[in-house]
Task: structure prediction
Amino acid sequence: MSESMQTLEEHTSSDYKYGFTSDIDTEVFPKGLNEDVIRQISAKKEEPEWLLEWRLKAYRHWLTMEEPHWPNVKYEPIDYQDIIYYASPKKKPKYDSLDEVDPELLRTFEKLGIPLEEQKVLAGVAVDAVIDSVSVTTTYKEMLAEKGIIFCSFSEAVKEHPELVKKYLGSVVPQTDNFFAALNSAVFSDGSFVYIPKGVRCPIELSTYFRINTANTGQFERTLIVAEEGSYVSYLEGCTAPMRDENQLHAAVVELIALDDAYIKYSTVQNWYPGDEEGRGGIYNFVTKRGLCAGKRSRISWTQVETGSAITWKYPSCILKGDDSIGEFYSVAVTNNRQEADTGTKMIHIGKNTRSTIVSKGISAGRSHNSYRGLVKVGKRAENAHNFSQCDSLLMGDKCGAHTFPYLEVENNTAKVEHEATTSKIGEDQLFYLQQRGLKEEDAINMIVNGYCKEVFQELPMEFAAEAQKLLAISLEGSVG
Amino acid sequence: MLSIKNLHASVEGNEILKGINLEVNPGEVHAIMGPNGSGKSTLANVLAGREEYEVTEGSVIYKGEDLLEMDVDERAHAGVFLAFQYPVEIPGVSMATFLKEAINANRRARGQQELSPVEMLKFIRSKTKLLGMDEQMLKRSLNEGFSGGEKKRNEMLQMALLEPSLAILDETDSGLDIDALKVVADSVNALRSPDRSFIVVTHYQRLLNYIVPDFVHVLFNGRIVKSGGKELALQLEEKGYDWIKEENAVAG
Ligand SMILES: Nc1ncnc2c1ncn2[C@@H]1O[C@H](COP(=O)(O)OP(=O)(O)OP(=O)(O)O)[C@@H](O)[C@H]1O
Ligand SMILES: [Mg+2]
Result:
């Protein structure tokens, strides 16, 4: 299943999500944020009282907070009163034909091998394609339901499974956690909810493709995944096709909870619009992702390939509370032109014999800046905790920057913490070697870069890995020579 | 096949090649010997098209075309192969992937069909076997952690697979045990044909017992100062380079 199909699916099925009342379809709230706006969002979504209170608590706290400026990124100040906090996602196509679409975008679609009809949908051109994706989705839904797996939109979960949502929402990322998480908690529009019952191994990769009530990935998305004792799930988020959005600010929250012996594997390909070569118009992506290894021997694994956005601020983290639990973070972050990324992870060791692995591969090209920021914390009670971190930076050209900020807090002297870091330039001698064997310069670069990222790509589900490779090639096009 | 005339090349402003003249006809094997730092690898790299080396004067005609005008990969497609003195390691790129891409890139450029995965594997296997290489090596990263001898053997594998018209071997024999040396010689001899030429850079006469050259040249201080038949190599083995250096000092 191609990721472009996934996006197509998201577009074509967006009617379903906001279909609870038809008059909402075209509705857009006025700009700005206040308690009334939050009350209206909650009312539109027919939310229970407790959730409104939860949102309001987040909002009131947010008012007391300052936007963080410690990340190593620079951007124009955000005017939070100049943002629309609720808009129906069912937008009219902006164009009548592909001729009106940015040729740069079309070229990328072509390179990714996206069929013409799908290109139209992705670019926001009017199409009359009828795609019977609903039946596919229904088939999977039935198969999942048989096993007791819940996979639906967040709004649907609030209606159908309020007890689960109430129990776990905010249990990993409290609504007061940080500036952007608080903002998300106050105004989140929708997202995904996954629940895997005790002892169940989810038989398919859960990608948003199979989620029936889904919309265009929102500005303030909220995802919650709960894996009960001994269960397993692999979840795929994102899309390799370049994703455009009129909303510049994106602040998502993802919470994962793994109980005893549960394993959650969460993979992301992020390819939001990075802006033009001067960085104009790109998305600001401020994400809070955190997993709680609540149970003994539980395991949470984050794998991400980040190529998009003008600004990325993202630290998928693991709280290793259960004894013998495992946290993993595998990341490829690519920046080109004027992109800036400050990304990394936090591994918080609380339980005994907890283990964590961090593999971060930064690639900077153009005039971009790419920072790794990672915290490894070992608490007093965490006997025999073990962390291994490897942070590599690859520079392409001499106008870009790579920075590494590792933080280490160890309160237990049985801990074993290893950190390796390298910075290298793409080797002229490597390029020459491959070209001497007949490879074109571009192909030689791709081969070297893919080799460099191999440890991360091999953590991705097969299909995703192949697409991620293509994506990387496109992102780095023309960055050397 | 190859005609080098008055070739001058410099790196970072220092002139290293100071007027090389060399004619290589189809089917010939030329050995190039000479003291360390005399410019042998520089010549090899210039022929392969390494950008760091700036050609300041002279010409190189290869199969009737101006070699110096061609890009690195174009030269490869035209059949120029360089077995590196120090093959680089490329982490994360498996041997299998690399060989497959290289073979198909050349086939595409030459207007041939790409090999199917099955044909490819068969083809590669036939050569690894010939070179006495363990197939497990195909799963390893390109040259990463290979021993010195394994790296050289790998260069010969690539030569066998790419079937070049002009193969330049830069000290492929250095650091090899006697068995590996024979493997190198065998792979060259197996490819020898009336329309294929070799330039073999070496410090040791020993290799030339196995690969019998048509000509031996001595490169000294950026120039070819002496040329002869295979007996010149024996002479060098016996007397070293001092006499040539002296001759040259008198002459120059
Ligand atoms: N990239 C470079 N930068 C600076 N100097 C260089 C470079 N490449 C070669 N040289 C210099 O050019 C000269 C010739 O080097 P070259 O490697 O061609 O010698 P060689 O004949 O192959 O020696 P050896 O027998 O040791 O392999 C040496 O003085 C070397 O230091
Ligand atoms: Mg040399």
Summary: The radius of gyration of chain A is 22 Å. The first strand of chain A starts at residue 150 and ends at 153. The pocket of magnesium ion (ligand 2) is lined by residues B 40-41, 85, 170-171 (CB under 6 Å). The mean pLDDT of chain A is 82.
